[in-house]
Protein backbone atom coordinates (compact mmCIF):
# COMPACT_ATOMS: atom_id res chain seq x y z
CA UNK A 1 0.00 0.00 0.00
CA UNK A 2 1.58 3.26 -1.05
CA UNK A 3 0.86 6.75 0.12
CA UNK A 4 -1.27 8.96 -2.09
CA UNK A 5 0.64 11.66 -3.96
CA UNK A 6 -1.05 14.38 -1.88
CA UNK A 7 0.12 12.65 1.30
CA UNK A 8 3.63 12.60 -0.08
CA UNK A 9 3.73 16.30 -0.88
CA UNK A 10 1.84 17.61 2.14
CA UNK A 11 4.08 16.26 4.86
CA UNK A 12 3.80 17.17 8.56
CA UNK A 13 5.55 20.15 10.10
CA UNK A 14 9.23 19.18 10.65
CA UNK A 15 11.00 19.02 13.98
CA UNK A 16 12.31 22.59 13.95
CA UNK A 17 14.82 22.01 16.72
CA UNK A 18 16.42 19.11 14.86
CA UNK A 19 16.33 21.02 11.58
CA UNK A 20 18.05 24.03 13.13
CA UNK A 21 20.74 21.81 14.63
CA UNK A 22 21.37 20.24 11.24
CA UNK A 23 21.43 23.68 9.59
CA UNK A 24 24.10 24.88 12.04
CA UNK A 25 26.24 21.93 11.02
CA UNK A 26 25.70 22.68 7.35
CA UNK A 27 26.70 26.30 7.74
CA UNK A 28 30.15 25.29 8.97
CA UNK A 29 32.91 25.86 6.36
CA UNK A 30 32.46 23.64 3.34
CA UNK A 31 35.09 21.09 2.43
CA UNK A 32 36.64 21.85 -0.93
CA UNK A 33 35.19 19.86 -3.80
CA UNK A 34 37.56 19.23 -6.68
CA UNK A 35 38.10 16.77 -9.47
CA UNK A 36 40.47 14.89 -7.18
CA UNK A 37 37.58 13.97 -4.85
CA UNK A 38 35.78 11.60 -7.19
CA UNK A 39 36.92 8.63 -9.25
CA UNK A 40 35.90 8.66 -12.94
CA UNK A 41 33.89 5.58 -13.79
CA UNK A 42 36.49 4.16 -16.17
CA UNK A 43 39.18 4.49 -13.48
CA UNK A 44 36.88 2.99 -10.86
CA UNK A 45 36.30 -0.10 -13.00
CA UNK A 46 40.05 -0.51 -13.52
CA UNK A 47 40.53 -0.37 -9.75
CA UNK A 48 37.60 -2.75 -9.13
CA UNK A 49 37.49 -5.13 -12.12
CA UNK A 50 34.93 -7.38 -10.41
CA UNK A 51 32.42 -4.55 -10.78
CA UNK A 52 32.45 -4.74 -14.59
CA UNK A 53 30.67 -8.09 -14.77
CA UNK A 54 28.38 -7.11 -11.89
CA UNK A 55 27.35 -3.93 -13.70
CA UNK A 56 26.70 -5.84 -16.93
CA UNK A 57 24.53 -8.43 -15.16
CA UNK A 58 22.60 -5.73 -13.35
CA UNK A 59 22.10 -3.83 -16.64
CA UNK A 60 20.48 -6.96 -18.09
CA UNK A 61 18.08 -7.00 -15.14
CA UNK A 62 17.25 -3.31 -15.64
CA UNK A 63 16.57 -3.70 -19.35
CA UNK A 64 14.63 -6.92 -18.92
CA UNK A 65 11.05 -7.58 -17.79
CA UNK A 66 10.10 -7.21 -14.14
CA UNK A 67 10.12 -10.37 -12.01
CA UNK A 68 7.94 -10.06 -8.91
CA UNK A 69 9.47 -10.04 -5.42
CA UNK A 70 9.81 -13.52 -3.91
CA UNK A 71 10.59 -12.48 -0.32
CA UNK A 72 7.50 -11.73 1.86
CA UNK A 73 7.45 -8.21 3.30
CA UNK A 74 6.61 -7.65 6.96
CA UNK A 75 5.87 -3.97 6.23
CA UNK A 76 6.10 -1.49 3.35
CA UNK A 77 9.55 -0.18 2.44
CA UNK A 78 9.90 3.46 3.51
CA UNK A 79 11.53 5.62 0.82
CA UNK A 80 12.33 9.34 0.82
CA UNK A 81 13.36 11.34 -2.25
CA UNK A 82 14.87 14.83 -2.32
CA UNK A 83 15.23 16.02 -5.92
CA UNK A 84 16.14 19.36 -7.61
CA UNK A 85 13.17 18.96 -9.96
CA UNK A 86 12.27 22.65 -10.33
CA UNK A 87 13.84 23.03 -13.78
CA UNK A 88 12.74 22.60 -17.37
CA UNK A 89 14.51 19.24 -17.68
CA UNK A 90 12.03 16.44 -17.03
CA UNK A 91 14.73 14.00 -15.88
CA UNK A 92 13.89 14.15 -12.18
CA UNK A 93 10.11 13.97 -12.47
CA UNK A 94 10.27 11.10 -14.94
CA UNK A 95 12.73 9.31 -12.69
CA UNK A 96 10.10 9.18 -9.95
CA UNK A 97 7.47 7.89 -12.38
CA UNK A 98 9.72 5.09 -13.67
CA UNK A 99 10.82 4.21 -10.12
CA UNK A 100 7.26 3.85 -8.86
CA UNK A 101 6.08 1.98 -11.96
CA UNK A 102 8.84 -0.62 -11.59
CA UNK A 103 8.24 -0.97 -7.84
CA UNK A 104 4.61 -1.77 -8.57
CA UNK A 105 5.53 -4.30 -11.26
CA UNK A 106 7.91 -5.92 -8.79
CA UNK A 107 5.02 -6.16 -6.31
CA UNK A 108 6.99 -4.24 -3.67
CA UNK A 109 4.87 -2.53 -1.02
CA UNK A 110 6.26 0.91 -0.27
CA UNK A 111 5.62 4.33 1.23
CA UNK A 112 7.13 7.28 -0.60
CA UNK A 113 7.84 10.80 0.63
CA UNK A 114 9.02 13.31 -1.97
CA UNK A 115 10.60 16.75 -1.52
CA UNK A 116 11.28 18.84 -4.62
CA UNK A 117 13.56 21.87 -4.79
CA UNK A 118 15.73 23.88 -7.16
CA UNK A 119 19.36 23.02 -7.88
CA UNK A 120 20.65 26.02 -5.89
CA UNK A 121 18.07 25.79 -3.11
CA UNK A 122 18.54 27.73 0.12
CA UNK A 123 20.53 25.52 2.52
CA UNK A 124 17.91 26.10 5.21
CA UNK A 125 15.21 24.60 2.98
CA UNK A 126 17.33 21.58 2.10
CA UNK A 127 18.27 21.07 5.75
CA UNK A 128 14.61 21.10 6.76
CA UNK A 129 13.69 18.69 3.96
CA UNK A 130 16.47 16.32 4.95
CA UNK A 131 15.64 16.46 8.65
CA UNK A 132 11.97 15.81 7.98
CA UNK A 133 12.90 12.83 5.82
CA UNK A 134 15.27 11.37 8.42
CA UNK A 135 12.73 11.91 11.21
CA UNK A 136 10.53 9.37 9.44
CA UNK A 137 13.38 6.84 9.54
CA UNK A 138 13.29 5.82 5.87
CA UNK A 139 14.88 2.59 4.74
CA UNK A 140 16.18 4.36 1.63
CA UNK A 141 16.85 8.01 0.87
CA UNK A 142 17.48 9.16 -2.71
CA UNK A 143 19.49 12.37 -3.08
CA UNK A 144 21.90 13.96 -5.56
CA UNK A 145 25.24 15.76 -5.69
CA UNK A 146 24.80 18.83 -7.86
CA UNK A 147 26.21 21.63 -5.72
CA UNK A 148 28.68 22.01 -2.85
CA UNK A 149 26.02 22.04 -0.16
CA UNK A 150 24.79 18.61 -1.30
CA UNK A 151 28.05 17.03 -0.23
CA UNK A 152 27.61 17.98 3.42
CA UNK A 153 24.01 16.87 3.31
CA UNK A 154 25.06 13.48 1.92
CA UNK A 155 27.69 13.06 4.61
CA UNK A 156 24.95 13.69 7.16
CA UNK A 157 22.87 10.92 5.58
CA UNK A 158 25.82 8.49 5.50
CA UNK A 159 26.23 9.05 9.23
CA UNK A 160 22.60 8.00 9.69
CA UNK A 161 23.36 4.27 9.77
CA UNK A 162 19.77 2.99 9.48
CA UNK A 163 19.10 4.67 6.15
CA UNK A 164 20.58 3.37 2.88
CA UNK A 165 21.58 6.18 0.56
CA UNK A 166 21.03 6.13 -3.20
CA UNK A 167 22.99 8.94 -4.87
CA UNK A 168 21.12 9.86 -8.04
CA UNK A 169 22.69 11.37 -11.18
CA UNK A 170 26.20 10.50 -9.94
CA UNK A 171 28.32 7.68 -11.40
CA UNK A 172 31.74 8.65 -10.03
CA UNK A 173 32.34 7.28 -6.50
CA UNK A 174 33.75 9.82 -4.07
CA UNK A 175 37.05 8.81 -2.53
CA UNK A 176 36.22 10.24 0.89
CA UNK A 177 33.24 7.91 1.13
CA UNK A 178 35.04 4.72 0.10
CA UNK A 179 35.13 3.35 3.66
CA UNK A 180 31.37 3.79 4.06
CA UNK A 181 29.96 4.14 0.53
CA UNK A 182 26.36 4.84 -0.42
CA UNK A 183 24.14 1.85 -1.17
CA UNK A 184 24.12 2.77 -4.87
CA UNK A 185 25.39 5.44 -7.26
CA UNK A 186 22.93 5.63 -10.16
CA UNK A 187 22.52 7.78 -13.26
CA UNK A 188 24.14 8.40 -16.62
CA UNK A 189 27.86 9.03 -16.71
CA UNK A 190 28.41 12.72 -17.39
CA UNK A 191 31.90 12.24 -18.76
CA UNK A 192 30.82 9.47 -21.13
CA UNK A 193 27.98 11.65 -22.40
CA UNK A 194 30.34 14.58 -22.85
CA UNK A 195 32.72 12.41 -24.86
CA UNK A 196 29.83 11.49 -27.19
CA UNK A 197 29.05 15.17 -27.72
CA UNK A 198 32.69 16.16 -28.14
CA UNK A 199 33.25 13.42 -30.70
CA UNK A 200 30.71 15.17 -32.93
CA UNK A 201 31.24 18.83 -31.99
CA UNK A 202 35.03 18.96 -32.02
CA UNK A 203 35.70 17.03 -35.23
CA UNK A 204 34.84 17.31 -38.89
CA UNK A 205 34.59 21.11 -39.08
CA UNK A 206 36.20 22.90 -42.02
CA UNK A 207 36.75 26.07 -39.98
CA UNK A 208 38.29 26.85 -36.57
CA UNK A 209 35.81 26.25 -33.77
CA UNK A 210 35.48 29.18 -31.39
CA UNK A 211 33.11 28.56 -28.55
CA UNK A 212 31.78 29.66 -25.17
CA UNK A 213 31.14 27.38 -22.19
CA UNK A 214 27.77 27.77 -20.46
CA UNK A 215 28.17 26.08 -17.08
CA UNK A 216 25.37 25.24 -14.67
CA UNK A 217 26.07 25.90 -10.97
CA UNK A 218 29.51 25.61 -9.36
CA UNK A 219 30.02 21.96 -8.52
CA UNK A 220 29.80 18.41 -9.74
CA UNK A 221 27.71 18.69 -12.93
CA UNK A 222 29.65 21.66 -14.30
CA UNK A 223 32.96 19.94 -13.61
CA UNK A 224 32.12 16.65 -15.25
CA UNK A 225 30.22 18.03 -18.23
CA UNK A 226 31.87 21.41 -18.76
CA UNK A 227 35.48 20.91 -17.68
CA UNK A 228 35.63 17.54 -19.44
CA UNK A 229 34.59 19.19 -22.71
CA UNK A 230 37.17 21.95 -22.27
CA UNK A 231 39.95 19.39 -21.71
CA UNK A 232 38.93 17.53 -24.84
CA UNK A 233 38.82 20.76 -26.82
CA UNK A 234 42.30 21.72 -25.61
CA UNK A 235 43.66 18.72 -27.50
CA UNK A 236 42.99 20.48 -30.80
CA UNK A 237 44.68 23.62 -32.09
CA UNK A 238 41.56 24.31 -34.15
CA UNK A 239 39.38 24.77 -31.06
CA UNK A 240 39.44 27.98 -29.01
CA UNK A 241 37.53 28.78 -25.82
CA UNK A 242 36.40 32.43 -25.94
CA UNK A 243 34.62 32.67 -22.60
CA UNK A 244 32.83 30.76 -19.85
CA UNK A 245 29.89 31.58 -17.59
CA UNK A 246 28.26 30.06 -14.53
CA UNK A 247 24.52 30.44 -15.01
CA UNK A 248 23.17 28.65 -11.89
CA UNK A 249 20.97 26.76 -14.36
CA UNK A 250 18.84 29.92 -14.56
CA UNK A 251 17.35 30.57 -17.99
CA UNK A 252 17.49 34.35 -17.69
CA UNK A 253 21.16 34.27 -16.70
CA UNK A 254 21.96 31.76 -19.43
CA UNK A 255 20.20 33.83 -22.08
CA UNK A 256 21.99 37.01 -20.92
CA UNK A 257 25.36 35.24 -20.92
CA UNK A 258 24.78 33.94 -24.44
CA UNK A 259 23.75 37.38 -25.71
CA UNK A 260 26.81 38.95 -24.12
CA UNK A 261 29.12 36.39 -25.69
CA UNK A 262 27.51 36.75 -29.12
CA UNK A 263 27.93 40.52 -28.95
CA UNK A 264 31.52 40.34 -27.72
CA UNK A 265 32.61 37.73 -30.27
CA UNK A 266 30.84 37.98 -33.65
CA UNK A 267 33.02 35.08 -34.87
CA UNK A 268 31.73 32.67 -32.20
CA UNK A 269 30.40 29.57 -33.93
CA UNK A 270 29.80 27.05 -31.12
CA UNK A 271 28.20 26.95 -27.67
CA UNK A 272 28.48 24.12 -25.17
CA UNK A 273 25.49 23.97 -22.81
CA UNK A 274 25.77 21.92 -19.61
CA UNK A 275 22.01 21.34 -19.17
CA UNK A 276 18.62 21.39 -20.85
CA UNK A 277 17.58 24.70 -19.27
CA UNK A 278 20.77 26.37 -20.48
CA UNK A 279 20.42 24.99 -24.00
CA UNK A 280 16.85 26.26 -24.34
CA UNK A 281 17.89 29.69 -23.08
CA UNK A 282 20.74 29.76 -25.60
CA UNK A 283 18.25 28.99 -28.38
CA UNK A 284 16.27 32.09 -27.36
CA UNK A 285 19.41 34.23 -27.47
CA UNK A 286 20.52 32.86 -30.84
CA UNK A 287 17.06 33.54 -32.25
CA UNK A 288 17.18 37.13 -30.97
CA UNK A 289 20.50 37.66 -32.77
CA UNK A 290 19.45 35.78 -35.90
CA UNK A 291 22.23 33.20 -35.48
CA UNK A 292 20.40 29.92 -34.97
CA UNK A 293 21.85 28.51 -38.19
CA UNK A 294 25.35 29.91 -37.58
CA UNK A 295 26.24 28.59 -34.12
CA UNK A 296 26.52 24.89 -33.22
CA UNK A 297 24.61 24.19 -30.01
CA UNK A 298 24.13 21.01 -27.96
CA UNK A 299 21.58 19.85 -25.44
CA UNK A 300 22.13 17.48 -22.51
CA UNK A 301 19.82 14.59 -21.71
CA UNK A 302 17.38 14.29 -24.60
CA UNK A 303 14.15 14.99 -22.72
CA UNK A 304 10.91 16.05 -24.37
CA UNK A 305 11.79 19.74 -24.78
CA UNK A 306 15.18 18.95 -26.28
CA UNK A 307 13.75 16.43 -28.72
CA UNK A 308 11.19 18.98 -29.91
CA UNK A 309 14.01 21.49 -30.42
CA UNK A 310 15.95 18.83 -32.36
CA UNK A 311 12.93 18.23 -34.61
CA UNK A 312 12.55 21.96 -35.26
CA UNK A 313 16.25 22.24 -36.08
CA UNK A 314 16.82 24.75 -33.27
CA UNK A 315 19.16 22.34 -31.46
CA UNK A 316 21.94 20.66 -33.42
CA UNK A 317 22.54 17.60 -31.25
CA UNK A 318 22.13 16.12 -27.80
CA UNK A 319 23.14 13.08 -25.82
CA UNK A 320 19.92 11.19 -25.13
CA UNK A 321 19.66 9.18 -21.93
CA UNK A 322 17.55 6.04 -21.83
CA UNK A 323 15.88 7.97 -19.08
CA UNK A 324 13.82 5.35 -17.25
CA UNK A 325 16.84 3.09 -16.69
CA UNK A 326 17.74 5.08 -13.59
CA UNK A 327 14.37 4.66 -11.87
CA UNK A 328 14.24 0.97 -12.78
CA UNK A 329 17.76 0.45 -11.41
CA UNK A 330 16.80 1.94 -8.05
CA UNK A 331 13.75 -0.32 -7.80
CA UNK A 332 15.74 -3.41 -8.76
CA UNK A 333 18.47 -2.61 -6.22
CA UNK A 334 15.85 -2.36 -3.45
CA UNK A 335 14.31 -5.65 -4.59
CA UNK A 336 17.72 -7.36 -4.49
CA UNK A 337 18.27 -6.26 -0.91
CA UNK A 338 14.77 -7.37 0.12
CA UNK A 339 15.65 -10.79 -1.32
CA UNK A 340 19.01 -10.73 0.49
CA UNK A 341 20.92 -10.52 -2.81
CA UNK A 342 22.78 -7.28 -2.09
CA UNK A 343 25.96 -8.86 -3.43
CA UNK A 344 24.33 -8.71 -6.89
CA UNK A 345 23.96 -4.92 -6.74
CA UNK A 346 26.92 -3.04 -8.26
CA UNK A 347 28.34 0.02 -6.55
CA UNK A 348 27.52 2.06 -9.67
CA UNK A 349 24.83 1.80 -12.33
CA UNK A 350 25.28 3.97 -15.43
CA UNK A 351 22.47 3.86 -17.97
CA UNK A 352 22.70 3.82 -21.75
CA UNK A 353 23.13 7.04 -23.76
CA UNK A 354 22.80 7.67 -27.49
CA UNK A 355 23.88 10.65 -29.60
CA UNK A 356 21.07 12.16 -31.67
CA UNK A 357 21.22 15.12 -34.07
CA UNK A 358 18.82 17.21 -36.11
CA UNK A 359 19.59 14.82 -38.97
CA UNK A 360 18.49 11.72 -37.05
CA UNK A 361 15.51 10.16 -38.93
CA UNK A 362 12.13 10.59 -37.25
CA UNK A 363 11.55 6.84 -37.11
CA UNK A 364 14.79 6.39 -35.16
CA UNK A 365 13.89 9.23 -32.80
CA UNK A 366 10.52 7.62 -32.16
CA UNK A 367 12.06 4.24 -31.42
CA UNK A 368 14.57 5.78 -29.01
CA UNK A 369 11.79 7.75 -27.30
CA UNK A 370 9.76 4.59 -26.70
CA UNK A 371 12.82 2.89 -25.25
CA UNK A 372 13.92 5.82 -23.10
CA UNK A 373 10.50 6.50 -21.56
CA UNK A 374 9.06 3.00 -21.50
CA UNK A 375 7.58 3.51 -18.02
CA UNK A 376 7.28 7.24 -17.48
CA UNK A 377 5.44 7.98 -20.73
CA UNK A 378 2.52 5.81 -19.65
CA UNK A 379 2.20 7.06 -16.05
UniProtKB/TrEMBL annotation:
Gene3D superfamilies, A to Z: 3.40.50.2300
Alphabetical list of InterPro entries matching this protein: Peripla_BP_I, SBP_2_dom
Domain of life (superkingdom): Bacteria
Primary location recorded for the protein, binned into one broad class: other
Keyword set, alphabetical order: Signal
Periplasmic binding protein domain residues: 79-339
Localization terms from the record: Cell envelope
Family assignment from sequence similarity: Belongs to the bacterial solute-binding protein 2 family.
Protein name: Substrate-binding domain-containing protein
Lineage of origin: Bacteria, Pseudomonadati, Pseudomonadota, Gammaproteobacteria, Oceanospirillales
